[in-house]
From TrEMBL:
Annotated stretches, region: Disordered: 393-412
Keyword Flavoprotein in annotation: no
Entry EC no(s): 7.1.1.1
Enzyme class: translocase
Origin: domain of life: Bacteria
Catalytically driven reaction(s): NAD(+) + NADPH + H(+)(in) = NADH + NADP(+) + H(+)(out)
Function: The transhydrogenation between NADH and NADP is coupled to respiration and ATP hydrolysis and functions as a proton pump across the membrane.
Domain Alanine dehydrogenase/pyridine nucleotide transhydrogenase NAD(H)-binding: 164-329
Signal peptide boundaries: none
A single MF term (Gene Ontology): proton-translocating NAD(P)+ transhydrogenase activity
CDD domains for this protein: Rubrum_tdh (cd05304)
Protein name: proton-translocating NAD(P)(+) transhydrogenase
Ranges of biased composition (kind: Acidic residues): 402-412
Gene source species: Paucilactobacillus suebicus DSM 5007 = KCTC 3549
């Protein structure tokens, strides 16, 4: 059976579609998936928007802002009960997951490759899931939906700002009548979207900045920001889709040795290394932390329950070691710039909504590789190829329908 054949029908949901916005359940999550500006645009398009009371408060968007934008502010149960599409930032808690209904569509940054059991549960309950972590980011028409980029960019900026705040010296060189202060040296490990933004911000703050990555292609991007690229001994660490590959044990050992030298020469180390579907690679060992100068600041964007890039980093915590080194467990930095990151997230959500709704129906076109990439679960089936591989499920056959020209489908 073609798993995409069952699209939402108008008669199942009434004349117009309803989008629900949940308040995030984690105490560390301050973002909200829709802001009042995007809400207003969607209402103008004829959609009904339900927002859970106080959903945007931590991001400085208040219930009356949503009401002025044309949304209804209701309680959580009403959002879940009455919405065709429910949008959120992070994975819903267990209670919320159990409330979603068959045929409903949920959209968020749901880390589907690491919570495969949740995806299996959604499939069992016929809850349809679009998960931003699966978006094929290199397809040009998907770029307006790219939450990973919009949020990483915010996180990279904040990493440099936090580092400058915790570092007990100036970032820029200061020549004053009272003497000269040397500029700070900042090293950024992993120079993807977050790393490049951290480099740009640290440069603007006046530091001397270098970047390190195992993808040789990132050299040009680092150098174009005026930073020095540190060449890795790891022979081409690029994997598929522009991402890094996982290193072998030998490569990782060699990397730890070369990085120990680079780290000891710097005052600030910002780490952003990720490998999709795997826990973040350890880049700064316990020995490197011990050999760092007093006052050194590590900001670990990889810090999560899965581990981090820096030995000793703890998610959501700032630790000061016995040798006076500060380690910030900073996996939540986009949430710490909640207003701006929510505005960008909302634009990404708007792009997806515009893309999937046609003629007052939700259409998941089986021949559209943006949608087949973004969709984790549809009509009771795990349909995403990467997720199926992670779950050891066989590949699905290609859809039988003749392909509509998907290149012509643009965001309206
Ligand atoms: P990411 O968050 O997956 O990882 C961050 C960085 O860590 C990457 O640069 C990666 O190479 C690096 N890394 C991983 N393991 C490492 C290790 N052991 N040692 C050193 N560095 C390591 O990456 P991202 O920010 O999502 O970007 C990944 C790629 O996708 C980049 O090439 C980026 O330019 C590209 N991208 C393309 C588009 C597009 O085409 N529209 C959009 C976004 C990102």
């Amino acid at each position: 059976m073609n798993p995409f054949s069952n699209i939402f029908q108008e008669e199942e949901f009434g004349m117009s579609l309803t989008i629900g916005v949940l308040k995030e359940s984690s105490p560390h999550e301050h973002r909200v998936a829709l802001d009042p500006e995007v809400t207003k645009r969607l209402v103008k398009k004829g959609l009904q928007i339900l927002v859970e009371a106080s959903a945007g408060e931590d991001a400085n968007f208040f219930d009356n802002d949503y009401e002025s934008a044309g949304a209804k502010v209701v309680d959580r149960n009403a959002v879940i009960e009455q919405s065709n599409i429910v949008v959120m930032i992070d994975n819903p808690d267990e209670q919320t997951r159990s409330q979603f209904k068959s045929g409903q569509l949920i959209l968020g940054l749901l880390n589907s490759l690491t919570v495969t059991d949740e995806m299996t549960e959604f499939a069992k309950n016929k809850v349809n899931v679009l998960s931003f972590d699966l978006l094929p980011r290199t397809i040009s028409r998907a770029q307006t939906m790219d939450v990973l980029s919009s949020q990483s960019s915010v996180a990279g900026y904040k990493a440099a700002v936090i580092a400058s705040d915790l570092y007990p010296k100036y970032f820029p060189m200061m020549i004053t009548a009272a003497g000269t202060i040397k500029p700070a040296k900042v090293l950024v490990l992993g120079t993807g979207v977050a790393g490049l933004q951290a480099i740009g911000t640290a440069k603007r703050l006046g530091a001397i900045v270098s970047g390190y990555d195992i993808r040789p292609a990132s050299r040009g991007e680092v150098e174009s920001l005026g930073a020095t690229f540190l060449t890795s001994s790891v022979s081409n660490g690029a994997g598929s889709g522009g991402y890094a590959r996982q290193l072998t044990d030998e490569e990782q050992e060699a990397q730890h040795k070369e990085l120990a030298e680079f780290i000891a020469q710097n005052d600030i180390v910002i780490t952003t290394a990720q490998v999709p579907g795997h826990k973040p690679p350890l880049m700064v060992t316990e020995d490197s932390v011990q050999n760092s100068k007093p006052g050194t600041v590590f900001v670990d964007l990889g810090a999560s329950d899965l581990g981090g890039n820096v030995a000793g980093s703890k998610p959501f915590e700032t630790v000061v070691t016995d040798n006076h080194v500060t380690i910030v467990g900073a996996g939540d930095l986009a949430s710490r710039v909640a207003n701006s990151s929510s505005q960008l997230f909302a634009k990404n959500v708007q792009a997806v909504i515009n893309y999937v709704i046609e003629d007052d129906q939700i259409q998941i076109d089986p021949t559209d590789d943006v949608l087949t990439g973004l969709a984790a679960v549809y009509d009771g089936e795990i349909i995403n190829a990467r997720l199926r591989k992670a779950l050891d499920l066989p590949e699905l056959p290609k859809p039988e329908e003749p392909a509509e020209d998907s290149e012509t489908k643009e965001e309206s």
